[in-house]
Amino acid sequence: MDVTQSAEMNMEPAVLRIVIERLGKWLPIGPVAVRGGKGDIEASLRTLGYEIADAGRSVATVVCSGAQDPEEIEGFLKGALESIDRVPVCIVLCGSVDQTCRVSWEKAMLSRQWRKHPLGELVAPYGELDRVTGLVMTAFEPLPDLAAHAYPLRALEEERDLHTDMMRESGRRSDAHLARYIQASRFVEDGDRVLDVACGLGYGSYQISRSTRAASVVGIDLSDYAVDYAKTNFSGTQGLAPCYSVGDAQDLSQMADGSADFAISIETLEHIPQPVQLLSELHRVLTPGGRLYASVPNDWSDESGKDPNPFHLHVYDWKALSEQFRAAGFHIEKAWLQDAGGGQKRHLAARTMLEVDPRRGPQCDGEWLLVLARKFTTDDAPRNDSLMSTVSDMLRAGGREEAMARLSSAAADSSQPLRRAASAMRLAALHAFSGDAARTQLAWSEGVVVAKPMLEEPALRRDVANLLALAYDALDHDGLSMVALLSRHPAAMALMELERFDPLLNMTDRAFNEGVTAEYEPLGLGGRQIRESLEAKRWLDQKYHEHVARIEELEAYTAQLEEARHWLDDQYHSLTEQVQRLRRAETSHGP
Description:
Structural class: alpha/beta
Number of strands: 13
Number of domains: 4
Helix content: 40-55%
Largest sheet: 8 strands, mixed
Shape: globular
């Protein structure tokens, strides 16, 4: 084995441990070639059972270097790349290095017909790219010969406004796009059929195929150029190869109902005329309980209220995004804010992925909104829970307190977690019918606490998602009647067997109508009109408070501007006085 002595580096034990841990996740099975590193990496990999091989037999190469500026990198690569196989390569830099040299390495490798490795996140986590110094790791794989010939970098530059292969782009924006697909892959379950709508040049579908055990990965895009590029670059790869076809994201009529388990929509909704149509189509083609991972720019509007990007047809914020998902029949399970920096918004931000509460939405700013949502289902059959039969009999006999005590006991039984969560929420419904707002909120919150950890269990995930959707809606709209709330969540109602509360449901609805109608009799309004009027009033109240909050923000901003103006005035007067003193001094001393 030829170890390049000029690339020797001193590697601290802690740094070496991190390097080996990440290489262990990234390296394929088979012999590995090592160049540089003073033998530390080589010895550690041997300890893990890797065979260290010479060029010609390796399935991957680890290259250690200390080169940082472009000239050093170019000089190093001229010799190094000639002596290694055209196999995946991981570059390891340590010592007095920081992440700023990453772009120089990326540009140098991309110009030599390499591209970013689809699993590069394993050696260079997105959240560390602006925070870790003393260690830089970056991975690449060779570009297929046919792709290199048909699509050289200059050809991609000509298409850049419409299509970009982020695996052949350097820098922050590329990192952000690749990180989204890797994050989406973490939620793809073994055997899932994955659909990537508006897949562009196909790099994301390729990442999914390489990072999951999906049964199939299909990417569709409206552009013939994009699909041809994707097929040339990614369809001939080893393992599960993604399939690409031309298609309109807003019209998936070529796909049967329930034919996909997981869907991905990255930076798509803002580009298409009818985003609601896309969400409706995805809801149709997803299986019951299927999941959707999506991202949109987070309020990239300018002072006119519009997005200055001519290709962005819509402006999204959390409210607009969550309302569209809810209207299309999706429940948002997880949400994130992503920053990359270097763009028109939050130009100086570090590369971060911040998880936020999907019920409240983000409480701070960020460049992109990312969500993981689950398709609502209405086909959950009642579970014939004997508990609900007992509770129903108690309610019919007028024993509401006994029924609540029985549900409280079931909500404390840890042996059946799903039943426990459902019972806590049944108890919340009973408290709501009783008019006890404080206990209602407490019971809903308890149900959320019990249910949320079960999202990690595939067998329970679908039922739990339906329960959480009901609970979050109840906590967000504590003024909403229980009847209206349950009508919005038929799947959860079926799961909890709340049809056994039918006498209460009818009584509550009738009592509401009769009580309010009596108050509004002089106006000649019926129960339905009264409901609609009250809903309208609540909506107007909400809008009023939103506008008041916005006015307060503008007033605070005006005060800040005024303070800044005073500061500038003071600076101006101070500088003017200094200039005048200098002129007087110059005059007094003469020529």
